[in-house]
Design goal:
The protein has two helices and four strands, in the order H-E-E-E-E-H. By secondary structure, the chain is of the alpha+beta class. It is elongated.
């Protein structure tokens, strides 16, 4: 799925804070094309693996990323 140029211009790499561009099913950081973020079901997954409780692989592998916050 193609992400519009307008949306791409508003998104930033969570690691470098640099601009992103779409390359197939990924958004890549313009200043370092080795940094890339998957697009899953049309949604860019912009997660800094070093600082997040989630990882990019959680979304790529479609793991359950929700928590049950209700007291038992």
């Amino acid at each position: 799925m193609q992400i519009s140029k307008d949306i791409q211009q508003k998104l930033l790499c969570p690691d470098t804070k640099g601009k992103l561009k779409q390359n197939g099913e990924y958004l890549v950081t313009v200043s370092n094309t080795n940094i890339r973020y998957p697009i899953i079901d049309g949604i860019p997954i912009l997660i800094n693996n070093k600082k997040s409780i989630f990882s990019l692989s959680d979304f790529v592998e479609r793991k359950n990323t929700t928590f049950n916050l209700k007291k038992k």
